[in-house]
Amino acid sequence: MGATITEKILSAHCDAEPGAPDALRAGQFIMARVDFCLGNDITAPIAIEQFEKAGFEKVFDRTRIALVPDHFTPNKDIKAATLSKRLREFARKHDIVNYWEVGRVGIEHALLPEQGLVGPGDLVIGADSHTCTYGALGAFSTGVGSTDLAACFATGQVWLRVPESMKFTFTGELPRWVGGKDLVLYTIGRIGVDGALYRAMEFCGPAIEKLPMDDRFTMCNMAIEAGGKSGIVPPDEKTRAYCEGRLRREARFLTSDPDADYVEQYEWDVSGLSPQVAAPFLPSNTKGVEEFENIEIDQVVIGSCTNGRISDLRIAAQILEGRKVAPSVRLIVFPATQEIYRQALEEGLVDIFIEAEAAFSTPTCGPCLGGHMGVLAAGERALATTNRNFRTRMGHPDSEVYLCNPAVAAASAVTGRITHPAELGTERPGATARRAD
Amino acid sequence: MPGKCWKFGDDVNTDEIIPARYLNVTDQDELAAHCMEGVDPEFAARAQPGDIIVGGKNFGCGSSREHAPLAIKALGIRCVVAGSFARIFFRNAINIGLPIVECPGAARDAQEGDEVEVDLAAGRVVNHTQGRTYEFEPFPPELQAIIDAGGLIPYAKKTAR
Question: Is the domain A5-269 a CATH 3.30.70.3400 member?
Answer without folding.
Answer: no
